[in-house]
Amino acid sequence: xxxxxxxxxxxxxxxxxxxxxxxxxxxxxxxxxxxxxxxxxxxxxxxxxxxxxxxxxxxxxxxxxxxxxxxxxxxxxxxxxxxxxxxxxxxxxxxxxxxxxxxxxxxxxxxxxxxxxxxxxxxxxxxxxxxxxxxxxxxxxxxxxxxxxxxxxxxxxxxxxxxxxxxxxxxxxxxxxxxxxxxxxxxxxxxxxxxxxxxxxxxxxxxxxxxxxxxxxxxxxxxxxxxxxxxxxxxxxxxxxxxxxxxxxxxxxxxxxxxxxxxxxxxxxxxxxxxxxxxxxxxxxxxxxxxxxxxxxxxxxxxxxxxxxxxx
Length: 312
Description:
312 residues, alpha/beta, 9 helices, Rossmann fold
């Protein structure tokens, strides 16, 4: 289910934390009928708030309200969650249905794709959609996890091109549908926490610590620029939320050395502040699982709300 294994190669390890898992969705708060009041969530396991500790015998999906419920409640909008654990940028636009039925009050689409289900919903609710968040792209690189360093780099470059093509197409289709429906909608695209920074406190010694440092370059030079461009280039109300850089990943402005500022902890001793934050916000340090915990999803929700309301 969750393939969060720590590999020896930096680039392939970046793919690990982005692995696919089943998830669920959660409906949220009431809304003002006079204003665009519907909030659509699209994407993968992060969009459905997956947590490994939420899996039970009665609910094996591991889904929680995640960041979407926080955003919906703060913005006073009704959430319609189309997310599907394990989704890739290809499956979101080309795969019929979600293989793992979502729990709670998620939107189900057994006869169409996630993208088309969202487009159909927009068309059926003209003037009512006011916000869309998208978390997608991580699972596109999971196929690179078993490669050697050279092959991993080539694999990630190929995945990067696919992400560019598919996410750009997805956002363009959403904008066209929204324009036809007469909606003025903010589309918020997300990236992911750099959970590989947590390798710093996992077994592996100097190699694991080097891996944590190298993960910074993979995000900064490849993954995040691609996602930012896809979500904002030519998109009137496109917003990119850089979850990776928040809050203490960098030691200083413009410095690509996020592990120099330290913090003393009871469990791990003196460790970089950025690593401490990853341990606090995700399951990677404790379970080597790439997903956010409740605190982490709430933190992501706050980042989204801040981006939507830059003036407070």
